[in-house]
Amino acid sequence: MRDQSCMPVPAEAAEAVIAGAEEIVRRAAGREEARQRRRGRKEQERRRRQAGCDRKAAERRERERAEEERLRAEADGARRALLRRAAELAEACGGSVPDCFAAVPDPRKRRGRRHSLPCVLALVVMAMLRGKTRLADITAWIANADQEMLAAAGGRTGRDGRRQAPCGKTVTRLLGMLGAQALADAVACYLAAAVPALPVTFPVAGPLPQPSLNCDGKEVRGAVRGDGTSPFLLSAATGGIVVAEREIGVKTNEIPEIGPMLRELNERFPLAGWVISADALHTQRGLAALICEGLLAHFIFTVKGNQPGLRAALEALCWAGARRHVATSEGHGRRETRSHLVMDAPEEIKARFPHASQVARVIRTRTVTSWRSNGKKRTRTTETHTETVYLITSLTAREAGPEHIAAYIRGHWGIENKVHLVRDVTLREDASKVRADSRPRALATLRNLIMGLIRQVGHDDIAATIRKAEYDNVLLLALLRITPAL
Q1: DSSP conformation letters of 280-312
Q2: How many Å apart are CA 141 and CA 389, to the nearest integer?
Q3: Where in the chain are the domains?
Q4: Residue 400 pLDDT greater than 60, yes or no
Q5: Contact 290, 262 (CB under 8 A)
Q6: CATH number of 178-197+207-436
Q7: How far apart are CA 321 and CA 346, in angstroms?
Q8: Contact at 8 Å (CB) between 428 and 133?
């Protein structure tokens, strides 16, 4: 074991030790102070960043609040505009949709009648606006309708003070007993009252577009009459709104029925100055005389094989100097070019069709691009088809140029795209299994009513509006023109 000295430490060594210890303490204090400064700077930076984040969050919340208020204001403004539009339409038509049905005769006996005809039909329209297309779904919705809808339709009040809904058998039986033509006339008159009365002009300096009426027929495929045939409905529409409808009998066709339909329509909806278009079946001298002399309107007809002499005369004309208008459209993998050649009707055409003022030749060139696959390889194919169509019109060159005649021809397809297609696809008329009595015709008329109600408030997308009305009572009642006080 090493010997330990008990000699005292020199004063210089002790001072050196103390100085070293103090240096160590100073260094430690300096490091601690540096750490505190770094911590302070980090804390300041954190607070600055947090303040920036808080400021940005506050600005974001303010923007979201302002956007929410803007959307709420826009929604409220749109709601008020919708209600004002509904009130204007109700005033123009003489009341709401239930008031429209008040003009339809009730086929039931007065004794034992618990639910009024306007109430039942209004509930059917409500169910269809809720997206119910089958009769079973319609009756189920009516049986479970809430008190607000029953009150809006004018439902019967029970002893407990609650509105009572008609049962499914009542709805089905009433639709079967209903006078279908009376219902169609009432609905058409109601919708026609809200169609804006466009000014009929007689241009002098140049041609101007005139309001047009499109006529066409449609078969109700799912329905069957007593003789086994399907009902066929002849309609007249403007802007996708049906303003006249007539059922074609078993032993007749559209030709003898379109004249009386237009005469009845002219009594409540003057057609003077309008341009009436129809397909080739109605290219008849008698109808042309009725339109030009009886209704003081104009016609534009397609000439096909049912008028062989007139078509041959049109094909033999020299179209080299005719006025030309070319229109092009694209969509769904299809490109179509329509070349319109228009000239004054020569004397040989007027001799065959006295009221013809101009003749037109339309050359449609359609190019369709599609992809075909054999299971291993996809091939892009392009097919081009050309079609030539001839037309005659009572419009003179002073009243309609080539571009206006092209617009009338194109507008005639509106009754197919805006009426028949919507009834078949959106409202599922072809899939309907309702066949007996007057139910198919009554439901077809109510489908026309639904399309007219939606379009007259300014909505063009029928399917989207029905989806929205399924959950929006305000929109549903506005479509029915039942509006609260603004």
Answers
A1: GGG--HHHHHIIIIIS--EEEEEE-TTSHHHHH
A2: 48
A3: 69-102+105-177+437-486, 178-197+207-436
A4: yes
A5: yes
A6: 3.90.350.10
A7: 13
A8: yes
